[in-house]
Amino acid sequence: MRILLVEDEDKTADYLAAGLEESGFRVEVARHGLDGRHLIEEAEFDLVILDVMLPGLDGWELLRLIRRQSQVPVLFLSARDDVEYRVKGLDLGADDYLVKPFSFVELLARVRSLLRRGPLRARESFRVADLHMDVLRRRVTRGEARIALTNQEFALLQLLLDREGEVLSRPFIASQVWGMNFESDTNVVEVAVRRLRAKVDDPFSRKLIHTERGMGYVLEARA
């Protein structure tokens, strides 16, 4: 899974990046607020770890930017333990707030918790091309055709619709749909996607679920 770390303290950035990479994550590091903004606008991440005090553009502004375009989990780092700082961060849309100094073990636990959570946006329905999902009635249709899905298939399709246009990695899908981390060599996600496609895509000429080789899956209406 891919993490963006925006931290201007070199020693802290190097230490956290090395630890996260040793724990199996891919990490991009930005040491300036404007560099962080560029990466946020140009790439997709599964999690953002964001320092509050940054040169060029502070963490508050970066969080506002993130929330205008994404619901990616954000973990705030700050040397300030003031209640108003915590409240401001959470009000702006941060998912967690960790005060410096902290132990790497605690940060890693919070990272894993946020990646397991990755909450869906509150939506009652979704529509992409002729595919429609009514979440409250648990009803899925393509055009006039009703599609019967198992609970697992419904959850997988809801995740893909909620993240329409985003390439979702297999580990991320596994953590969201099954609530646990699977080993990278398991084929449970591939099997689930194949079964979902058999119902949602195969009977129809226009395909909506696409494979991005080496990356994962994305649901979108392509020309």
UniProtKB/TrEMBL annotation:
One of its GO terms (biological process) is regulation of DNA-templated transcription. It comes from the Bacteria. Keywords: DNA-binding, Phosphoprotein, Transcription, Transcription regulation, Two-component regulatory system. CDD domains: REC_OmpR_CusR-like (cd19935), trans_reg_C (cd00383). Residues 123-221 form the OmpR/PhoB-type domain. The keyword Zinc does not apply. GO terms for molecular function: phosphorelay response regulator activity; transcription cis-regulatory region binding. One of its GO terms (cellular component) is cytosol. The modification 4-aspartylphosphate is found at D51. Residues 2-115 form the Response regulatory domain. InterPro entries: CheY-like_superfamily, CusR-like, OmpR/PhoB-type_DNA-bd, Sig_transdc_resp-reg_receiver, WalR-like, WH-like_DNA-bd_sf. Residues 123-221 bind DNA. Pfam families: Response_reg, Trans_reg_C. This is DNA-binding response regulator. It comes from Bisbaumannia pacifica.
